[in-house]
Every structure is written in C-alpha cells, then in structure tokens.
C-alpha cells in the first residue's frame, strides 16, 4: 500500500455557509495535506458547495445522518484504507484554525503522542464556549484524572491529530454518540499516548451548536455514563 502523509477530515452537517471558507483556510495554511469532507446527510447544500472547491478535495456523502461519531469514523476508515500516516479532525463550523495544526504536529513529534488534542484552556487565551459547557469540561477533567491518571483540560475538543497507530485503532472502534471524551478512554485503555497543547480557536460565524444550554445536563449525564461504561468494559482485541 502506498504510504501517504497527512489527511484533514472535516465532518460537516448543514455547514453550507462555513464549509468553503474552512476548505480555503486549510489549503492556504496546509497545502501539503489532503482534504476529506464527510457530509453527514446534510439537508442544505453543504455537499454541493464542498464539491465546488475542485481538485484535491474528496467529498463523501453519507446516506443517513450518523452523527459526529459516524462521520469522523468514516474519516478514520478512509485514512486507514488509503495509508495515511496522520489524520487531523477539523470541524466544519470554522472554529478550528488550520494554522494551529502545525502546533499539534510539532507536539506529537516531540512527545511521541499517538493523539494530540488542541485545547482552548491550556496556557493560551482563546475563544471560550458557554459556561455550562466549561463546567462540563471541568467535570471531565477530574473524571479523566481519576480513571486514567491523565490531565485533559479540553476533553470535548474536536480539534485533534492522530498518528497511524490511533488511526488503525479508531477506524475499528470509535464511539457513535458524543465521541470526543469517550475516545480518550478508548485510546488510553489500548496503551496509546495522549497529548494536549493550547491552541487558538474562534467563534463560529454561522449556525449554532447542536448542544444548547438546556440540553447540557442531558449531555453531561449521557457522556459520563458512556465514559464509565467504556472504562469498565473489557479491552477490545486490536
């Protein structure tokens, strides 16, 4: 299999107003990276607009809305099948800055981490999310310290870089629902190393988050239960 270097995966659902700008930012800042847009059965023109970006951008249209977990795992499967050494997850809403990917790569290279998380809260002043989500992130911080003895300041961040080991693992096993915190447990249980570095993020220009303040308590309860279940579950063969 031909070994390729790095792939940017952009999961997108109803991001017609953001997707072209995200692709442009990636191209300008990461010209050597390939781009995969995973259109999660959007109801708007996300797919058509992404395809307008032209050569160098692959668009996968899912037949059903799988949610963020299924969309990102599609990216892992694509990266694994096509022999990429690295994969970077960048949200389609424009909050993640492609220019910050170099920080993730440098940290991964220096520390030997298998997954590096871009954090809004680690030694940097960046766009801050709502207070309810910050509270939830703090709860996850203490939960990770308790369960896996690892300090993760931004466990819900979807801005992440993965090496070949973590790509191979997560192409087979990746949480379906609210996967970012759960994937930390999965990575740790399989003996892979997790790193985190502070990055700048910006507020989305269009659209709204899928998790509203009213939904936050339900989200918190569901994710905590999922984390505990993943921690107690027998390690999968890999």
TrEMBL record:
SUPFAM superfamilies: Nucleotide-diphospho-sugar transferases. PANTHER family: RFBJ PROTEIN, UNDECAPRENYL-PHOSPHATE 4-DEOXY-4-FORMAMIDO-L-ARABINOSE TRANSFERASE-RELATED. Residues 8-168 form the Glycosyltransferase 2-like domain. Keywords: Glycosyltransferase, Transferase. This is Polyprenol monophosphomannose synthase. GO terms for molecular function: glycosyltransferase activity. It comes from the Bacteria. Coiled coil: none annotated. It holds the Pfam family Glycos_transf_2. InterPro entries: Glyco_trans_2-like, Glycosyltransferase_2, Nucleotide-diphossugar_trans. Transmembrane segments: none annotated. Its EC number is 2.4.1.-.
């Amino acid at each position: 299999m031909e070994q390729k270097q790095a792939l940017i995966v952009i999961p997108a659902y109803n991001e017609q107003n953001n997707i072209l700008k995200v692709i442009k930012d990636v191209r300008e800042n990461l010209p050597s990276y390939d781009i995969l847009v995973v259109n999660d059965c959007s109801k708007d023109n996300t797919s058509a607009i992404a395809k307008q970006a032209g050569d160098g951008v692959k668009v996968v249209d899912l037949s059903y809305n799988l949610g963020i977990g299924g969309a990102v795992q599609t990216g892992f499967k694509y990266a694994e099948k096509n022999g990429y050494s690295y994969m970077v997850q960048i949200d389609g809403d424009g909050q993640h800055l492609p220019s910050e990917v170099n920080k993730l790569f440098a940290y991964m290279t220096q520390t030997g981490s298998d997954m590096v998380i871009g954090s809004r809260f680690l030694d940097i002043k960046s766009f801050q999310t709502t207070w309810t989500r910050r509270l939830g992130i703090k709860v996850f911080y203490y939960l990770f310290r308790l369960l896996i003895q690892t300090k993760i300041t931004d466990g819900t961040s979807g801005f992440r870089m993965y090496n070949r080991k973590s790509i191979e693992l997560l192409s087979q096993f990746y949480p379906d629902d609210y996967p970012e915190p759960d994937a930390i447990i999965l990575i740790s249980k399989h003996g892979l190393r997790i790193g985190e570095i502070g990055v700048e993020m910006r507020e989305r220009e269009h659209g709204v988050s899928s998790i509203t303040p009213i939904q936050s308590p339900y989200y918190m309860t569901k994710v905590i239960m999922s984390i505990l279940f993943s921690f107690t579950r027998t390690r999968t063969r890999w």
